[in-house]
Design brief:
- By secondary structure, the protein is mainly α.
- 71% of the residues lie in helices and 0% in strands.
- The chain has 3 helices and no strands.
- Helix 2 runs antiparallel to helix 3.
- The radius of gyration is 19 Å and the shape is flat.
Length: 85
Amino acid sequence: MLLWLLLRRVPRAPAWSVAAAAVLAAVSVLGVGFTRVFLGVHWASDVLAGWVLGAGLAALAITVPLRVRRTGPAEAGRREPSGRA
């Protein structure tokens, strides 16, 4: 999420800085997860579930505002009429 917010704030960031930030974020997330398992404070399944949940929440937090902005808040949940009565 922080990487996405950073990219929104600095839209013309050089490609190398975006790649470096993505690598740093991935290493941080993976490193924390692996150390939790290595230290024995979490099961591997817990860490994997946390990664999946975090990725899902990040995807949701990124796509919902983009969809609302594209369609407008009043039309975001509205369906197209099917033409049937």
